[in-house]
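[agent] plan:
  1. take the single chain provided in the ticket
  2. run structure prediction with default settings
  3. attach structure tokens to the ticket
  4. add a short note for the reviewer (M.T.)
[agent] executing step 1
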Amino acid sequence: MSDRLRVIVMTQNDRFFIPENIYKASQVCQIVEIVEVNCKSSLDNKLKDYYKWFGFTQCAKMGMLTIYRELQKYVDRMCSYKKYHGFCSVGDVAKALSVVHQIIADSNDRNFVEHVRRLKPDLIISYSAPQIFKEELLNVPKYGVINVHGSLLPDYRGCLPSFWYLYNDERLGGATVHYMSAKIDDGAIIEQDSVDISDCKTMFQLMKKTKKLGGELMVKAIGDISTDKINVRPNESEKGSYYTWPTVEQAKEFMAKGYKLI
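[agent] step 2 finished; step 3 output follows
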């Protein structure tokens, strides 16, 4: 396979990690469109929950960091993306790469699926896309849909692995690139690696490590598929663990252990 794969990126709004990973992927494939999914389960729409879990001070610190990142974004735009390379938002990295960018509410909407079909992608790659994709969308790309998840699957399937890794006092984290199915964090594993998280006291610190690793693994996975050298292994979900969103009580326990959001 000599030509670069035609790829659609599906993700959600992010200012800190995902844009750079999209850029890295663009170096090994032809990204034809970047799609942000803004739905009920998107992290931007969980702000009230974050306030309940982590309180005013932690949310204020996160807010200040977000404001600073927004300022960097506007500086980057004035510098024609030569300062931060579009890494301050998903929309900006799309502009920096001259790639079409759109925001949708439902990945499985019939009109969107038809739109994807017209683009004839070889592959869809997901960075924290906040919805389960149904079979109709999964079956469109020639080589399927792959996702990067911030844990060592099949362990820590589900929501907020950065929270649960710390909550359980884990010393080793990781990331996994796997084929997507109609089940959560299911599908055969393509690439996986671990990273030391013993020095992480905040979710942000942990995500910085696992998102970086995940971006590198996605590049490898795209290369595996494009060169027909893919070597998958089972993702035995029945042998792993699954976590949903934390309760307020669990968030209090998390904080009592000395862990923080940021």
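[agent] step 4 note for reviewer: Strands lie at 6-11, 30-37, 100-104, 123-127, 145-149, 157-158, 172-179, 189-196, 242-243.
[agent] ticket updated
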